[in-house]
């Protein structure tokens, strides 16, 4: 005797499919670094107090997991707009900082020092190539980028090209492009910009 077939509720099938897709999205998601820039117009008589406040805030932020550093960019001649730039490993680390009681208390202390504020954020590769406010000459950033590309390309030619010389030319070029972009965005440029930060920001 053939046992009766038990039907499966279509609604259950849909829920199971959605759950499986959600798990796939979570597993496939790769956290990306995020950079936040807060521009604030500081009252003239509070500039010294604001600079001290900003250094304290950056020092506290560095103690949180996922912080990748930060800096305070001072205004140029005729301006009172400061830029506080800080970078975190991913959105979760940034959210933990933004919800922290330390940041909330710091923002309360800062309110009476400023007349205006705007905040922007970028993530992924853009967070490494976004130029800081009040930068130095553009040619310095260009020169540093060329140096990074040269170093990666030279290493690729010496270490990788001999092993893929039998590949078709389009395949070798594609591999080279992937290596250059990934290393430049996630390894080389972050290291170079930290190392040469004073030189990049110098006006002359």
Number of domains: 2
Query: Which CATH top level class of the largest domain fits?
Result: Alpha Beta
Spans of 5+ residues with little confidence (pLDDT < 50)? 2-17, 21-28, 130-134
Helix proportion range:
40-55%
- String of helices and strands: HEHEEHHEHHHH
Radius of gyration computed on alpha carbons = 24 Å
- Which class of secondary structure composition applies to the elements? alpha+beta
The share of residues in extended strands comes to 15-25%
Shape: elongated
CATH architecture of the largest domain: 2-Layer Sandwich
CATH topology of the largest domain: Alpha-Beta Plaits
- As an assembly, this protein is single chain
Q: What composes the largest sheet? A: 4 strands, antiparallel
Distance between the termini: 92 Å
The total beta strand count reads 4
Q: Can you give the mean pLDDT?
A: 78
Number of helices: 8
Give the strand order of the largest sheet, numbering strands 1, 2, ... along the chain: 2-3-1-4
Describe, in short, the structure shown:
The chain is α+β, with helices and mostly antiparallel strands. Helix content is 54%, strand content 17%. A 4-stranded antiparallel β-sheet has the order 2-3-1-4.
Overview of this protein structure:
- Helices cover 54% and strands 17% of the residues.
- A hairpin with a 7-residue loop joins β2 (67-73) and β3.
- It has a four-stranded antiparallel beta sheet with strand order 2-3-1-4.
- α2 (47-61) runs antiparallel to α4 and α6 packs across α7.
- The radius of gyration is 24 Å and the shape is elongated.
- The longest helix is centred in the C-terminal third of the chain and has 27 residues, at 169-195.
- It has two domains: 34-129, Alpha-Beta Plaits, CATH 3.30.70; 138-201, no CATH class.
- The chain is an alpha+beta fold.
- The chain is built from eight helices and four strands; from the N terminus they run αβαββααβαααα.
- The model is unreliable at 2-17, 21-28 and 130-134 (pLDDT under 50).
């Amino acid at each position: 005797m053939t046992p009766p077939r038990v039907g499966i509720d279509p609604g259950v099938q849909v829920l199971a499919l959605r759950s499986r897709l959600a798990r796939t999205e979570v597993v496939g998601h790769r956290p990306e670094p995020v950079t936040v820039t807060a521009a604030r117009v500081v009252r003239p008589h509070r500039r010294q107090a604001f600079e001290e406040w900003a250094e304290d805030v950056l020092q506290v932020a560095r103690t949180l997991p996922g912080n990748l550093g930060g800096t305070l960019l001072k205004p140029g001649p005729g301006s009172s707009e400061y830029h506080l730039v800080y970078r975190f490993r991913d959105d979760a680390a940034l959210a933990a900082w933004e919800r922290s009681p330390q940041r909330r208390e710091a923002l309360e202390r800062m309110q009476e020092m400023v007349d205006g504020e705007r905040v922007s954020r970028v993530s992924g590769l853009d967070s490494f190539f976004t130029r800081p406010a009040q930068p130095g000459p553009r040619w310095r950033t260009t020169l540093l980028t060329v140096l990074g590309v040269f170093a990666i390309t030279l290493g690729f030619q010496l270490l990788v090209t001999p092993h893929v010389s039998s590949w078709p030319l389009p395949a070798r070029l594609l591999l080279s492009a992937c290596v250059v972009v990934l290393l430049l965005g996630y390894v080389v440029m972050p290291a170079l910009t930290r190392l040469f930060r004073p030189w990049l920001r110098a006006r002359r």
